[in-house]
Amino acid sequence: MKIESAQFELSAGLGSQLPPSVLPEVAVSGRSNVGKSSLINRLLNRKSLARTSATPGKTITVNFYRLDTMRLVDLPGYGYAKLSHSEKQRFSQAIGQYLGDDRDLRLVLQLIDMRHKPTADDRQMLQFLSENEVPFMVVLTKADKLNRTERETQLRMFEQEFSEYEGLYWLPFSSQNGEGVEKLREILSEVTEE
Question: What residue spans define the domains of the chain?
């Protein structure tokens, strides 16, 4: 995986706009404002390839980033209450079609803010991925925002929260200090090798 080759490819606001699957893909999923775009920028060693915002609900399209041997796919964040019902329906349909299509989807990075318990929406997404046998791992974002005691408490809580998912791999991650970046790059290289 050559991160230097990364470039924005396209945005799809509707399921009908999704491009054909021509490369192995890794999707990035999570609630609004969990750090999906920041993770993509840090992974690809770019400051603003993926647009970030302090305001939740900014990514409302399925965004494709092309690398030499794979695509990273930024899915719209879920759980943001201020979007209109029609907008929520539209991007729910796009996400559903993306995950339901016959794509070369190698892994979903399911992002959860390490400072908080998984939300009902997070649990629903984990259940969907598990039931549909979509390969996924959990990335615990914003790890740098916890002190050592808080971190240990949260890790114990996540152990209990994820106990029903046998063999689930999860990784603390920080787009600020780089924790987990190299490990995640290794994982992406492994899962997208032909």
Answer: 3-192
Q: Which CATH class is domain 3-192?
A: alpha beta
Nearest to 46 by CA among 74, 75, 11, 4: 4
CB 63 within 8 A of CB 11: yes
- Tell me the pLDDT tens digit for each residue of 127-149: 989 998 999 999 999 999 999 99
Q: What is the DSSP string of 125-190?
A: HHHHHHHTT--EEEEEE-GGGS-HHHHHHHHHHHHHHTTTSTT--EEE--TTT-TTHHHHHHHHHH
Once rounded to an integer, what is the mean pLDDT over residues 8-15?
86
Tokens 């920041």 identify what position? 38
